[in-house]
Specification:
single chain, Growth Hormone, Chain: A
């Protein structure tokens, strides 16, 4: 059974203003600030104030991944039926509400419940609508720009949140790490959480009233038929993207420990370690925007493959153990290489949906199916690298094992993206 022509050609009749993408960018990162961005930038601090080890805290994120596993699948068709802006705004408000619980430093069990709740708010109501909205903005000829700018802009938003967070943290912690009490650290980090929750709520308000696109309703369908889903599942692009996204996302998850590496291996204090995490965040917008500018002029599938190759190189630099406190420049260079690699693959993997002949009107459903496999690192990556780090607490060898894991997954992603390029690159 062939897919309807209306299903394939909808993007020709849909247009959106520039501020549509700006609001999508703000929302796209704001929704993940509380569950992921703050723990990434303030990794050592988060473990201190919650009084948990790597595995203990990461198991909360695994609950998020388990909930997300079903949310991807069930939330996809929702995105194909309702306007993205309404789903996105509600998701933001509910996510910000969770920040009120997070700021109370819940125990292990309540933290897992909270992450499960965030798995619902950020995935079921948000993820597929965000990807579909980006395709709506990009149309037929600007998919690379749409997703490059989306991920780059999200990175800039996350970095600015990081700068604001570091400023608040530094203001309340003017002394050295060894003389600042745990209660003072908790108080400072709570201010960061409350500030983030307030900003997320304001962004939701803007999205609800202003993120509208002309002809957006034509990219929605009342009912998705099983024959259409079966037809889409026969596309090799769907299965290859599952592998590509899974491999790339492992690399992205492992960047969570860069600030921890800075503290434990490079011997930075907690504020400087947080600054390193924020520096990495600034690589994301730079990479995403540059990729967005060139992706539609060159073969986007080839750029995706080259991103994985660069990720292998960056992973090996850390995995070989050549980076030490005496090699600060090499450390910064390696962070640069790894950041560019991880963020370029992340900016591109949904940009190849159009090349893979995936219909716009079924974007939400297809993204849900792809994400069901592609984002399983939310379940296993955190506990895996947490176990490797806790097996060698504070030692360099634990970090080497983690980056060896990144290198292996990057190799798999490189092979899958090369096949994708040969099938769809022309």
């Amino acid at each position: 059974m062939a897919l309807n022509r209306s299903t394939i050609d909808i993007s020709k009749t849909t247009s959106a203003p520039w501020y549509y993408l700006v609001l999508l960018i703000l929302a796209g990162e704001a929704v993940f600030i509380l569950p992921f961005v703050l723990p990434r930038i303030f990794r050592p601090t988060v473990l201190d104030v919650f009084e948990m080890g790597n595995v203990e805290y990461n198991l909360g994120q695994s609950v998020y991944g388990l909930v997300a596993l079903f949310a991807y699948l069930l939330g996809g068709p929702l995105a194909d039926k309702y306007p993205p802006r309404k789903l996105i705004a509600v998701a933001l408000w509910l996510t910000a509400l969770g920040g009120l619980v997070y700021a109370q430093y819940p125990d292990v069990m309540l933290l897992r419940v909270l992450y499960g709740y965030w798995g619902f708010t950020t995935i079921f109501l948000f993820w597929s609508p965000m990807i579909k909205a980006a395709r709506v903005w990009g149309g037929i000829r600007a998919q690379g720009k749409a997703f490059g700018f989306l991920d780059g802009g999200r990175g800039l938003t996350g970095a600015l949140f990081g700068v604001l967070g570091v400023a608040i943290f530094s203001f309340f912690l003017s002394g050295a790490d060894d003389i600042v009490s745990l209660s003072d650290r908790k108080r400072a980090f709570a201010y960061i959480i409350y500030t983030a929750s307030g900003i997320i709520s304001c962004i939701a308000l803007l999205v609800w009233f202003y993120m509208k696109a002309e002809g957006e309703a034509r990219s929605s369908i009342e009912k998705i038929s099983l024959p259409e889903i079966r037809q889409v599942l026969k596309l090799p692009s769907v299965w290859l993207l599952m592998v590509i996204i899974l491999s790339a996302y492992v690399g992205y998850k492992i960047t969570d420990i860069i600030s921890q590496y800075a503290e434990e291996v490079m011997l930075y204090n907690q504020v400087d370690a947080a600054k390193t995490g924020t520096l990495l965040q600034f690589l994301r917008p730079t990479t995403g925007i540059l990729v967005g500018l060139i992706a539609d002029r060159y073969q986007i599938t080839k750029l995706l493959f080259l991103g994985f190759v660069l990720s292998i190189i960056g992973g090996l630099l850390f995995a070989t153990g050549v980076i030490a406190p005496t090699t600060s420049l090499l450390f910064l260079l390696s962070v640069l290489i790894l950041g560019v690699a991880v963020y370029s693959t992340r900016a591109l993997y949904f940009g190849v949906l159009q090349a893979g002949k995936i219909p716009l009107a079924l974007t939400g459903t297809v993204v849900g199916l792809i994400s069901l496999v592609g984002y399983t690192p939310d379940i296993f990556a955190g506990p895996a690298y947490g176990y490797l780090l806790d097996a060698h607490p504070g030692e360099k060898i634990g970090h080497q094992h983690v980056f060896l894991m990144l290198t292996g997954f990057s190799l798999v992603g490189a092979v899958a993206s090369l096949i994708y390029h040969r099938l769809y690159g022309r």
